[in-house]
Design brief:
CATH topology of chain A: S-adenosylmethionine decarboxylase
Low-confidence stretches of chain A: none
Mean pLDDT of chain A: 94
Helix content of chain A: 25-40%
Number of strands of chain A: 6
Structural class of chain A: alpha+beta
CATH architecture of chain A: 4-Layer Sandwich
Oligomer: homodimer
Strand order of the largest sheet of chain A: 2-3-4-5-1-6
Number of helices of chain A: 3
Strand content of chain A: 35-45%
Order of helices and strands of chain A: EHEEEEHEH
Largest sheet of chain A: 6 strands, antiparallel
Radius of gyration of chain A: 15 Å
Amino acid sequence: MGALGYNIFADMYGCDNVLDDVEYLRGVMKEAAIKGNMSIVRTIFHRYETHGVTGVVIVKESHLAIHTWPEYSFASVDIFLCGTKSNPYEALKYIELKLRPKKVYTHSIERGMAIEYERIK
Amino acid sequence: MGALGYNIFADMYGCDNVLDDVEYLRGVMKEAAIKGNMSIVRTIFHRYETHGVTGVVIVKESHLAIHTWPEYSFASVDIFLCGTKSNPYEALKYIELKLRPKKVYTHSIERGMAIEYERIK
């Protein structure tokens, strides 16, 4: 095993005008978790007083998070997963379908490298 | 302004035997948010049936998350912030003090680049 966890980041520019709609976003993120074959534990979504939403879906495999800046039509999505059963890219595909960004940058990093925790045993 | 948000990651290897203690971790992460000059909105912490904890602290400035693997003495911490008022490194310093990892790797990325959202206007 190479890593304990995987972080996938997507920066979504030029999204549709849905980034202040906390219930819409909750629905999108929950459905994204299901599409990505994750098991939802709990969700927590918060709309800020002025604008913007922060939402987290805790899943058995770790979490999905979204932060939105409606004033810039920008949304950032993070997916943190452990295990190999889930497909974060299916989740991302669904989120893109519902936010319709004009441009998306995606990248990923590994977390908790076996080589490191074996070194310090 | 260069970026809308900042992600800071810390992979903590060889932590003390506290990684299954959900209430201890909730306390640590809340206090870390305060140390980092963030304003707590809500917290959500979950202990998995077998082992390990996932916890998220939603703050006005975005979120802090922790995932633990007690069986590997490993914890991953993510901090996502917007604005310049908070100090994520003060938060991290406090978490390290309370988890006492033998080794920590930290890195950061910027999210939502001004150059990009201006391009697609």
